Amino acid sequence: VQLIESGGQWVQAGDSLRLSCAVSGGTFRHYAMGWFRQPPGKEREFVAAITWKGGATMYSDSVKERFAIARDNAKNTGYLVMISAKIEDTAVYYCAALSSPVAVTSTPEVWGQGTQVTVSS
Q1: H or E segment at 119?
Q2: Which residues have CB under 8 Å from 113's CB, separation 6+?
Q3: Which of 8, 29, 43, 81 fits as disulfide partner to 73, beta carbons 3.0 to 4.6 Å?
């Protein structure tokens, strides 16, 4: 399975943005999906995850109430909607297929190449 992120761009603080993760070469519904990010000079960190049916989601405290994760299994695509972007949201954002379809805390198994989001004041 391959994952390709898109939608990253430069935005101003307070703007909204939607990232997409297109999945090919596999069955998307077999995986839970996660979004992670790596800010400049920092380690990669967890952002959000969703089970294969979308019945369960999880968010990091730093994005809770501002970000929303979603998926469309018919389109083999996952999404991360960012609302009220902050400067500290600047990072390379990665989507990942998680090893268990029903566990938002399962291990990332396949990574995308990442998409850059830059938030300025």
Answers
A1: strand 115-120
A2: 4, 5, 94
A3: 29
Token pair recorded at residue 50: 């969703």
**Amino acid (one-letter) located at 116:** Q
Cα(83)–Cα(56) distance, integer angstroms = 20
Cα–Cα distance between 47 and 49 in angstroms, integer?
7
What's 76-99 look like in SS3?
Answer: CEEEEEECCCCHHHCEEEEEEEEC
Per residue of the chain (121 residues), give pLDDT as tens. 999 999 999 999 999 999 999 999 888 888 999 999 999 999 999 999 999 999 999 999 999 999 999 999 999 999 999 999 999 999 999 999 998 899 999 999 999 999 999 999 9
Phi and psi dihedrals of 73, rounded to 5? -65, -30
The torsion angles phi and psi of 15, rounded to 5 degrees, stand at: -75, 170
* Residue 82 · residue 116 · CB < 8 Å: no
Question: Using the 8-state DSSP alphabet, how is residue 31 labeled?
Answer: S
Helix (H) or strand (E) holding 108: strand 108-111
Phi, psi of 51 (to 5 degrees): -75, 175
